[in-house]
Write a structure and sequence with these properties.
five-stranded parallel sheet, 58% helix, globular, binds adenosine-5'-diphosphate, 193 residues
């Protein structure tokens, strides 16, 4: 298996690059943001609980997203590998993910971390809010809250994988194709062709 974490703050381009990467490498895309938005669309109890937190720019509880990822791993036993997008977002989530993969005899192969300045993130997210229909993209205070959550709770995920030498920083500004080129160069060095 080849398991990749696409890492970076909100607005760094994880969703855009994920779509292109799964098409190239045949990985299964697991986005906790997308999974949570599907729960909201289906008006499930979990979705209702998550929505109020997401609308404030706060993270949903670890056990909720870990449960969703556990189920997704179980439901895709034949996957060539997984691309994790927006997960793990806390140190506890990264430890839980490592344990879940270990049960499958697998691990995270690489963490590709998209590097984008804060001004650029805010500009991109406000711009996305004009068309995305995502209520968490329309208010600047909510966007800033998400970036603060990222600094406080999510950056320890990079520290965790850095201990194992698994983190590679990739420039997240430039054209979509340039960034994709940099990401694929890193993956090609590590994946069995
Ligand atoms: P973005 O990266 O642009 O913020 P996402 O779609 O990844 O967008 O996440 C949207 C929201 O969903 C987050 O602000 C958070 O409230 C919630 N969320 C997504 N993934 C996680 C996670 N792994 N842990 C906790 N909350 C999450």
């Amino acid at each position: 298996m080849f398991n990749l974490i696409l890492f970076g703050p909100p607005g760094s381009g994880k969703g855009t690059q994920s779509e292109k990467l799964i098409a190239r490498y045949g990985l299964k895309h697991l986005s906790t943001g997308d999974l949570l938005r599907a729960e909201i669309a289906n008006k499930t109890p979990l979705g209702l609980e998550a929505k109020s937190l997401m609308d404030k720019g706060q993270l949903v509880p670890d056990e909720v997203v870990i449960g969703m990822i556990d189920a997704a791993l179980t439901n895709n036993p034949k996957a060539r590998g997984f691309l994790f997008d927006g997960f793990p977002r806390t140190k506890a989530q990264s430890e839980a993910l490592d344990a879940l993969l270990k049960k499958k005899g697998a691990s995270i192969n690489v963490v590709l971390a998209l590097d984008v300045t804060e001004d650029e993130l805010i500009k991109r997210l406000l711009n996305r809010g004009l068309t995305s229909g995502r209520s968490d993209d329309t208010k600047e205070d909510v966007i800033r809250a998400r970036i603060t959550e990222y600094h406080n709770k999510t950056s320890p995920v990079a520290d965790h994988y850095n201990k194992f030498g698994k983190v590679v920083l990739v420039k997240g500004e430039g054209s979509v194709d340039e960034i994709f080129g940099d990401l694929t160069a890193q993956i090609d060095q590590r994946i069995d062709q």
